[in-house]
Amino acid sequence: MTHLTRRIGVFGGAFDPPHRGHVALAQAALAQLGLSQLFVVPTGQAAHKQRPLSPAVHRLAMCELAFAEVPQVAVDARETLRSGPSFTVDTLEELQAQYPKSQLCLLIGQDQARALHHWHRASALPRLATIYVAARPASADPSSPIAASQVESFALQWLQMPAMPQSATDIRYRLAHHQGIETLVTEPVARYIALHHLYQSP
What we know:
It contains 9 helices and 8 strands.
């Protein structure tokens, strides 16, 4: 058996915008999983989102600002450069080929974990990465726990962290309605959003 020289985290999402909950998840993963590196991978063309995402150039720039103070984090633009919909399985396969002696750790939220069986080529995911789930606040969706069969099928592991109340949807709503977001995003991200007049329309 080949010795795995290091563990690499993969944290994908729209990051529209990245908020303090995203940063806390990255910090928890680095502290608990013994990661050598953590790739933050903003979605390119989202396959399952009804609304259009903000331009990739803005989401990449905000991620660079949001995670700048977190050691071992690198923002990876590969999905924004890929044509067609962004699929996590493609990103994992690329990273596995790029780092063949590393173990990949995919970080997802509880809401994503509930829908995992609907992901593109979902059955390939456990072969490519160990999947770690970070809990969302119970109030976000108390009626939909993750099914035991889902946990077993994907060999889900748990990332221990306090439930974070931040949500990108809430932040966009607040900005569209001229409400403050100072406690929800880092100061550099708040400045970037103001400078570029993002999320000002409902």
